[in-house]
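Task card 7
Instruction: Convert sequence to structure tokens.
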Amino acid sequence: MTAFVQTPSLPKRCQVVILGEKYAEKLRNPLQTLQIETLLLPDNPFLDSRLSGHADLSVLHAGGEELLLAPYLKGSAFAARLHKAGAALLFPDVSQGAVYPADAQFNVCIVGENILYNKRTVPSSVVESLTSEDRKPVNCRQGYARCAVCVVDEHALITADRGIAAAAETAGLDVLLISPGFIRLDGFPYGFLGGAAFKLSENVMAFTGRLDAHPDQRRILDYLEQRGIQPLYLTEEDVFDIGCAIPILEGATSK
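Output:
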């Protein structure tokens, strides 16, 4: 039996992930081999074509069945499939554009009870949809907060952004600060680790490619190991930024 992932980014045993359709050729088969289905996200026509398939710019999982979707997805087969699965969909009234910050209005990172975001970038209507008694907003200067954060568990994260690291630590989160760069993002000098990694279960972190060329590879792997998490490389390429994949449905864990 499947259910919606209760805690954003932290599935117990992932069965379905949202993946930008432009990355299906590289990642769909490796995920299928792991018995994980992909729900392909159509490109966002309002964004820079280099980022149009980045799920974290068009979809925001609030937890459980609640999802916020970019306006272009209203009436889409993608939205219909989520609705059929039981999702409660919200379409915030935002006007996305190809130039920052208009492309980053959904780029919010939920880490346990903390909502990391840039209040100058994310509309208040989006933040209000996420805020509850159990969650507290944490403002940071980085507009691409979700891209820049690899969520490890409810209390820990990895980032190369010093501003996010400082804000997260002030909020009581444990942070591994790594060197910026060394993550491929076609058309840009570099991408973010948060856009290149996502949890498949409580003890498995998937990476789009290998970390061999990253100077902090050992520190990253040690940090994961300390938390009982194993890395899983989906390809043999150097790790690359896809704007993350969003674990959305999970199966029951064995007792």
